[in-house]
Every structure is written in structure tokens, then in C-alpha cells.
Amino acid sequence: MRDTSVMDQKTENADEVLKYIPSLRAYARGLTRNADDADDLVQETLVKAIANISKFQPGTNLGAWLFTIMRNSFLTDVRKRTREKPGTKDCVSATPVSYPSHETYITGQRLFASIAKLPPHYREILLLVVVIGESYEDTAAICGCAVGTIKSRVNRARKMVMEDLGTTDILEILDVTPRS
Asked: Are 166 and 174 within 8 A, CB to CB?
């Protein structure tokens, strides 16, 4: 006979993993800069997490564990791609017929293009802390560095984005007024 409490804990952990899908998807899109690759990375992360759910220690941060799995999977894939030669990069089927002209869309595209230009270690930290909303401590655990390093990289990344966009206030770009 199997211990039902162990099985219940595994099922509970697996259900908890599913709650992180939106955050995982956002982080994956920031890492890969491609929606299809991001979806593949999320799927790979979920498969690995659920297959190894017994290795997760209850009471620890499940989100940090999942983001670490995703980051490691992404870095492994990057190393593989540097050894392999890709096929044709440009594919006509991926080119949209017409581009939207909505101002918010354009501003968002400028912002994401600016974030995409950041060096990987700044982009990754900015996405985790600012876009996804992870704490400095959790981000430090995910990336394997000190909290001070995380804070410094977030500050530098914000400055680089604002400089690239030609503003001193990121809220000006987003046309957002701060709440009182």
C-alpha cells in the first residue's frame, strides 16, 4: 500500500505549480523574445517540475524553484544552439500583413524593444523584479547572486531603458500618472 499523505502532498504541489503559469510565461517571453519559444520553454519547465515534484521541499518557495528550473533549461538550450547551426531565420509566414497603429501598442513595443537591447543579465533581472514582481531575495536565489547585486542591476537596467527611450521618467513613456 502507498502512503496516501505523500500522494496527497504531491498532488497538492502539482496543483500549486499550475498557479505560476502566467508568471512563467512572462519570464519565458522575456528570456526567449519569441512567443512560440516562450511557450515551449514554459511547457518544458512544467514537465520537468511535475516530473520532479517529489524533489521539491514543502515550505520552500515554489515560485523560485520553478523560475530556477526555467532559467537552467533556457541556459542549457542557449548552449545547445551555439553549437548547432540554425536553419533559415526569416520565415514569411511569421510576418504580419498589417501592423496596428494604436499608440499604446507602439509605446509598449518601444519599451519592450528597449528592454530587449539590454545585456542578458540586466534584462533577466529587470523582468523578474519589475515585470513579474518577484522580490529581490527570491530573484537573488533564482539567479544565484547577492541581493545587493540584484538591486544594483535593476537600477542600472532602469537607467539604461530610460536613456534609450530618451526620458528621465519611465512613467512619462507609459503615460501613467502615479497614484497618490
From this structure: no
